[in-house]
Design a protein that fits this description.
The protein is 47% helix and 18% strand. It is an alpha+beta fold. The strands form three sheets. Strands 1-2-3-5-4 form a five-stranded antiparallel sheet. Helix 2 packs across helix 3. It is globular, with a radius of gyration of 23 Å. It starts with 8 loop residues before the first helix and ends in an 8-residue tail after the last helix. The N terminus is likely disordered.
Length: 279
């Protein structure tokens, strides 16, 4: 697995819930036989003290191809992000890396409503609802001081202090990037994709591909250039620079160029900080 990860499972202590392992449903089977069909993909994981599931788990549980689940995720990305930031990670298991989405409870519930309501999907919904309920109960007891030992309370305090120190170190590390963005924001505020890629420490093609894969830009079918989605411009991350060129025959030609704002530069630097340039 490459270094690409929007959430570092080891650093952030992602806890897998063994009791909530995924049980996909095969056509023609009943719920009594489903226990024989467990797989190694966890249905629920705790990420930053929040129960989450993945598009991989949803695909397994509903017997829908994962690429189709990801297509729905991309299609309704703006809907899903009404319930929180949608994270993506890459998983490699012996073959081509697979990108998947990490969804919280309302996001996963909404995504499943976009699937055809077959018997398999219906049973998976029940399994998912039950798993989220059990995860919340575990979290509630886990952070109940009345049920915690002194050593557990001390460990939580030490972990909090460690996270505080890491955050302070990261803020100090990001100072040059923030200062750079502020200086250029006062100058013109926009960067072309090539310059933004350079500041992010990535090859331009890799930077453009990441923006495209994460739903920020698309290639114009008519002009053949990268342009931002409206959601990215509304968030102030990207914009379009229009230039009028006078032709020798007296006519004019208008060209468009995707530009990264100062806010977008800082955002993408942080978002793609763990990306590696391909060897």
């Amino acid at each position: 697995m490459g270094k690409q990860s929007h959430r570092n499972e080891k650093g952030r202590g992602v806890a897998k819930l063994a009791a909530a392992s995924l049980e996909p449903y095969s056509k023609g089977t009943n719920m009594k036989d489903d226990s024989k069909l467990t797989v190694n993909i966890p249905l629920i994981s705790i990420v930053n003290d929040e129960p989450t599931t993945t598009s991989l788990a949803i695909a397994e549980g509903t017997e829908v191809q994962h690429k189709n689940v990801m297509e729905l995720t991309r299609k309704y990305l703006e809907d899903l992000q009404l319930f929180g930031t949608l994270a993506f990670e890459t998983r490699k298991s012996g073959g081509r890396p697979t990108e998947y989405a990490i969804l919280n409870e309302p996001q996963s519930t909404l995504l499943i409503t976009y699937l055809k309501n077959t018997e398999i999907v219906r049973k998976f919904k029940m399994s998912l609802v039950k798993a989220f309920f059990e995860a919340r109960e575990q979290l509630r007891h886990r952070f109940d001081p009345a049920q915690m030992s002194r050593s557990e309370i001390l460990r939580i305090a030490l972990d909090a202090e460690e996270e505080k120190q890491k955050l302070a170190a990261q803020i100090e590390l990001d100072k040059p990037k923030v200062q750079f963005a502020e200086r250029h924001a006062r100058a013109d505020g926009w960067f072309c994709l090539r310059d933004a890629a350079k500041q992010a420490g990535l090859p331009p093609k890799r930077f453009n591909l990441l923006l495209h894969e994460h739903g920020y830009i698309y290639r114009s079918p008519s002009a053949g250039v990268w342009l931002p989605y409206s959601s990215a411009t509304q968030k102030g991350l990207l914009d379009v620079k229009s230039t009028t060129i006078a032709r020798p025959d007296g006519t004019e030609k208008v060209t468009q160029q995707c530009m990264v704002t100062a806010k977008g530069l800082q955002y993408f630097q942080n978002k793609f900080a763990t990306e590696e340039a391909p060897v």
